[in-house]
Amino acid sequence: MRRRGGHFCIAPGCSNEFYRAKDEGKSVRFHSFPFKRQAVLRRWLAALKRERSSVRRGARVCSEHFVNEDYVGERVIESGALVVRRTKKLKTEAAPSVFDFSSPKVGCSTRPAQTFMNTKSHLQ
To answer: Which part of the chain is the THAP-type domain (predicted)?
Structure first.
């Protein structure tokens, strides 16, 4: 299936994509990497087992890799009781922590990348 554009999650084992999640009625958010907060960025990279050079500016991690405590709480009164509801915004220091490293990402090959020969030497 071809991607229609939009965001997709780069976490290991995750195949969430914006349009597929939307089509399936899933409530999944896609969070940008905290490139301006270096200490938090290092925690994200360590959690994802990724090198900084392998993460592009448009990369996203979906909400399925965060716990409720990672989100800013909104205090509201419901049925006479004070309740803290999760909002869509991550706390400043939040880092992804929910992963399944045992399964490869759907659609990804586990074989090593092919190397291409120099055209001149290949033709001779």
So the answer is: 1-99
Half-sphere exposure of 13 (CA within 13 A, CB side): 10
Per residue, the 3-state secondary structure of the chain, as one string, reads: CCCCCCCEECCCCCCCEHHHHHHCCCCCCEEECCCCCHHHHHHHHHHHCCCHHHCCCCCEEEHHHCCHHHEEEEEEEECCEEEEEEEEEECCCCCCCCCCCCCCCCCCCCCCCCCCCCHHHHHC
Maximum separation of any 2 CA atoms in the chain, in Å: 82
Q: Where are the domains of the chain?
A: 1-101
User: What are the tokens at 124?
Assistant: 């001779």
Please identify which residue in the block is written with the tokens 């195949």.
15
The model's pTM is 0.68
Over pLDDT 70: what percentage of the chain?
76
71 in Cβ contact with 89 (< 8 Å): yes
